[in-house]
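#help-structures

NK: newbie question. if I give both the sequence and a SMILES, will the prediction place the ligand too? trying with zinc ion
OV: yes, paste both and it writes out the complex. here, I ran yours:
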Amino acid sequence: MPGPERIEVTFNSGARTRCVIESGALERLPELCAEVGLSGTAGFLCDARLVFAQGPLVKALGDRFGGVLARPVSEKHKSLAEVEAMCETLNARGVMRDGFVVALGGGVLTDLAGLAAALHLRGVPWVSGPTTLLAQVDAGLGGKTGANLRAGKNLVGAFHQPTLVVCDPRVLKTLPERERWSGLAEVVKCALLAPQQDALGEALLTRCERDLEAAARGDEAALSGLIFGAVKLKATVVSGDEREGDGPLAPGQLPRAALNLGHTVGHALETATHYERFTHGEAVALGLRSAIELSRLRGHVHDSDAARMQTLVRRLQVLAPNKLTPLEREAALVAMQKDKKARAGQVRFVLLNSSGGVVVERVEAADCGRALDAALD
Ligand SMILES: NC(=O)c1ccc[n+]([C@@H]2O[C@H](COP(=O)([O-])OP(=O)(O)OC[C@H]3O[C@@H](n4cnc5c(N)ncnc54)[C@H](O)[C@@H]3O)[C@@H](O)[C@H]2O)c1
Ligand SMILES: [Zn+2]
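OV: that's the protein plus ligand as structure tokens.
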């Protein structure tokens, strides 16, 4: 019987993903693969930085999987050229249809390796071992794989559900604390959404209020609980809306678009500062302030609920200076108008609702300015 640290997800397409959340689980990765029926030749694609940061783990897994295909990946080189290079290494390694891909690394590596798995021999199963908190709570589950084009981030990709996702809080010890804070912003996003989804309630919200700083320090028990809650929320959302809007939603089911909470302003801040000043999580943390304030201003959220949420969100550490120059502010407003989901000058915001669910609303330019100021005050 799966223990409480296992989450089994079945998608409308029939695909199934098992998520294991447990300290030390990556050390047992080959056994966990066998348990889900993966036993052929493995192509073990690994973020090259982990060869140093997690040397003993990478070596042990390399011995078991017949070698390590270390890839020096980064957001700047999250390209189709890298996916092609990965496919060449999978071919050279002799990964056939009965084989599988194992991806170990941050979200950049797992997105690229997942896409390589989708393309290699027109698709082989894959296993995701996310090693940043952001990747564990966000990129691991849900089947979105991808690469960047010159025109923008994640403009090419495929849905390819991993058979297994293994989230091991122990590997997060070697992450810089700022990266853990970045992942915690996505956890807090899930905590704000969980009470909006029937049957999940506010356990994750209270856990965040209790354990946020301990998790940022790398405390494994605190991290395990938060990762479990966030993955549970994401599992519930993506299993009910696998490809974002491809069918009717069950009553009480959050749309996949709800996961964009805080991201309208977050993406605008990243664009306006050329992806150099804020980590993704820092931009999302600031974007969550905007989303809560807009939800309150538009009467969707009671003042007392908004105050509780803002108190939690403001505990998320943003190490980057959050003042924008007038030029950057203008660039952020323009970026919001150009958001892929904006239409006719109206920007789409995911807002919370005290009576449950989320509201996706189009927001005029003037309110976009207020939203931005709420993020930065
Ligand atoms: N597929 C999805 O649904 C989804 C969701 C969210 C984000 N993403 C993608 O994820 C990417 C961001 O992921 P990220 O934040 O993990 O960034 P990342 O992959 O760049 O990792 C951040 C840094 O940490 C290093 N690192 C990874 N694990 C480590 C460890 N255990 N110890 C020390 N260093 C470690 C990496 O080498 C890198 O330098 C973006 O490209 C984004 O588009 C995808
Ligand atoms: Zn995000």
